Structure formats: structure tokens, C-alpha cells
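> @MW can you paste both from yesterday?
MW: sure, first one:
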Amino acid sequence: MSNDSNMQWGIERRLEFIDYLLYWDGKVNRRDIIETFGVSTPQASADIKRYQELAPHNLEYDKSKKYYFAPASFSPKFMKPDAEQYLSQLLNAQQNPESLIIEAPAYATLPNIRRTIDTGILKHIVRAIRDKQAIEIKYQSFSKPNPSWRWISPHALGFADKRWHCRAYCDNNQDFRDFVLSRILEVRHKKPAFLNPQDDKEWQTEVTLELSPNPNLSEEQQKAIARDYGMQNARLQISTKVALVHYFLYEYGLETDQIGEKQEIVLLNRVEIQAMQQQLRPTP
């Protein structure tokens, strides 16, 4: 951790760290604080003493093992435990030098096949969005066998279907659509973009998807799915942009009304969603 980063760590953050380790690991010692924050031994001792003053029932000292442990009376005082936060930190522990996890449990993840995005091309896209410019790109569409040049006016970036794309107005098709960043092969010209991102109705409009467990599952299985997804009364509402709805439905196998044998959730308001998509879709 750099000296600049060390300067950002205040006493509040270190007290939160002590809380964090006591909750997740059940123990903490001075070395944990020293190695994580780069502070001196006296400072680490002072931090633990301060924690004891503010939460006297939250830690006890084990002289034989030389660490403080969380007794049965422990209750976090400086942070709210969050399972998603912990697992997110675990997932990125090796790449994140500021991760709070000291003793990570054994874990494995599926390999992530990343699409290759040219840094220079991404720079042009980002600047075009910022400066409200149209750019001429060479794009490999899957509807045509060969790449072709076209003018687009990007106004936002999106991430869906495990890939990044830019949302842009396409001069060739005269509509707003998504362009996968890894399929943009070249950028050669630019000019002012005379468009208003507010005209992209599918991007600007939010829609709420109403989900519930697959009704073909057993009652206990449906309860398990409801718990998995944090549903209330067997219902879950997800808000997203209309332009991203088809990606969501594809990812969760909800493109059609047909309910698969292993499908966990179903879309309840499909008719409403389809009507909104049809209403906002540009007329050819």
C-alpha cells in the first residue's frame, strides 16, 4: 500500500477494520492493523485500546495466542456485516490491495473469458461521448459477412451479456442501437454530433420487471428460490432500462413464455413489457 493510500486511512476506518476481522475471522491482533494500514506498533496498540473503550464487550485477549478474539457477546459497532460485500471482496482480494480480508477461505471461480477491447478505440468512444462527437468506425456486424464503415454518435456505455457496448445513434440505420466494443476495428474521422441523447427513448426509459419462482416447482423449491433471490411475498421487482431488457431476459432464460424444466424464475408482466418495448421502438 502506497504512502498516499496510508494517509487516507483514518482512525474510523481502522476501528471498522477491527470490527470486520472480529466478525468474519473471530480474532484480530496488532500485526493485522500494522500490515494493512502501514501504521506503527504504538498506533496499532492505541487503535485497539480505543476500540476497547468504545466497545468493551466486543473483544477479549488470549495471552497464549497473543490475539484478541470475539466473545459470544460480540456485536459489530462500526460496520454493518454484508454477505455480498464480503464475497465481492473475496472475489477481488488478489487484485485489490485495499481488501480487508486477512485469512481468505479456500475458494475457486470459473475462468472469465474476456473480450479484447482496443485501448485506443475505447479512448475515442469515451471522448466522443464526453465531447458529443460523431465518429466513423469500421464495425464487424454479425448480420453482414464483412466489416463496413459507418458513422455513429455514441452517448453512453453499457455492460450486458458479459460484454461492453456503446449505445449510439447509427447514421446507416437511422436509429439508436448497441455496438459491441470488441467489434469496433478502427476509428478514422470525427465531427460534431447533432443529436440529443434524450431522443433515445429505449435508453432513457426505465421499466420494472416482476419476477416470481417457477410455479411448476414444488412449494418448498419455490420457497428456496424466493430466499435465493431475496423475494418478498414470492415477488421480486427489478428496474432496468428498456434498452437492456432483452439482455436480462436472455441471461435468465426468460425470452419466451415457455417454462423450462430447470428454470428457477418466471416473468409475470411480459405483456406489459412487450407493449412498452413496442411503443418505444422507432418506426421504420
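MW: second:
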Amino acid sequence: MGNWFSTPYPFRKKVVVSRNPTGQKINEKYMIFHDQVLGRGSYGVVRECIDLSSGEKLACKTMSKMELESKDRVEHVRREIAILRHLKNHPNIVSIKDVCEDDNELHIVTELLKGKTLDYILHRVPLPEKEASTIIRTLVEIIQVLHNNGVIHRDIKFENFMFGGSTNNIATLKVIDFGISVFYNPGDTCKLSSCTRHYVAPEVLMGNNQDPEVDIWAAGVILYILLCGIAPFRKGHPWVQRRGGRSWYHQLYMKGFYAHVKKWLRGCLNLLMKTVCAPSGIRS
């Protein structure tokens, strides 16, 4: 006998993805604008919607249960919902509002962010030092909030930070997309099956256990891009081929790759380079 995942739809056993759904159908509480697509992901589509009781504009991520074709995917979605609820109401983290579920679909309703994703700034890199420092300070503060609340994001990148307002004020920047995030306790380790390659830490490439330092590594890559205008690790780069950082680390120093940076910031970068090239256990 196969499980419900292998049984032809619609004769599958009903599965409840959310451990604490509202019990209401999405159309009873929200009007979804099906032509207002805000984004698409591997698990679903994000559309604008409106709360019928308050008139508030929100975002709704809709996932077909046919797309959640394995128990692992169901657990990923459950964990994403749990993390969003755990981090609810922080000004720099996208806020979950509701979860609705029926036999065929799951809907995660969040606040509507009206600004751009942080990758809009890539057409202007390299940035002036002051602007780059403001951005990276905000990102590091957000990552610290996640870690202090027992969450590793595991997919820190430009595209996963979004401005809350249309003016793209740095104070409104929020972290989004907790699809591969995990809870952790000090001393815990975990394996990561997927992430964005430009930002991947060496322990991920080598298939080792990972801890919160993978987020710190990714923040270092973002800082590098902001200041240098290119990603430090690209297709065919010795880092990826050799799975070691010494050659990259050495080239930065020997070639004076960031000679334009002022002395105080160069000192910060020296520390950063030593940090990201260190073993994960001392990357803090």
C-alpha cells in the first residue's frame, strides 16, 4: 500500500499541513486578486489580497497540496509557518497574519511589503563605503535577531530582504522567505540540502553539518558585493573547485582588491576576511 503521496489525486488521504489552521476557508476571510501576482516560488504563488473585515491589503502565498509531493516538503512548510509565528511582530521580519487550509490548498497570509527587494541596488554597486556600511549593519542586526530567537535563516541573500515601504527606506528593510530556515539550540547542527550557490559557506559545499555561522558567511558575501561590485565566488572559481578559501583569501590581500576602501573600513574587511575563511566553529 502506498502512502497518500503516491495515491492518484483526488483519492489521496486528506492531509493537514498546518498544525494550527484557522479552520476557515480563504474566501470567507479574504479576497484574493488572482491577477495581482507578487512572486512565484518552488512551492506556490504569492498574490495580493484584502482582508474582508478590515479592508487591509495583505499578501497571500498559495500552495497546491499536489505540489507538496513528499513528506519532507510538508515538514518544510510546517516549519516555515512555525518560524513565522515564532518571529511574529518584529519590525524587520515579515509578519504572518493567518493560515487557511482546505483539502486542496494551503494559504499563508502575511503583511504586504510595498517596496523592492534589496537586489534592486545591484545596478549601482560598488557602493560608497558609508552606504554599504549602513546596509550591512542593518542586515547583521536582523540576522542577530534571528539567531537570538533560535532561528537559522540559511538563505541570506539580497533577494530575501525587502523594503516595507515604497520609498525603500533602510529602516523598513525586512527579511523574508523562511522556506529552508530551521530552529536550533546552542550546540545543534543540521544538514542543508539546498541554498543559493553564490552565498554558500564552505561547510555546506563539503556536506558537513551547519550552524548559525552559515548566515554570517552569507552576510560577508553581501558586504563583498556591495564594496567590490562582483560576487567573490563565481562559476569556475577555485573556491568552488578546490573547496578551500586560502587562494581567494590570499588573492584579496596580494592584489589589493579593495585598496579604495578607507583605513577604518579596511580593518573591518580584514577581520571579515579572516572570519569567513575560518572554520565555521570560530566564525563569530
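> thanks! The longest helix spans residues 129-148.
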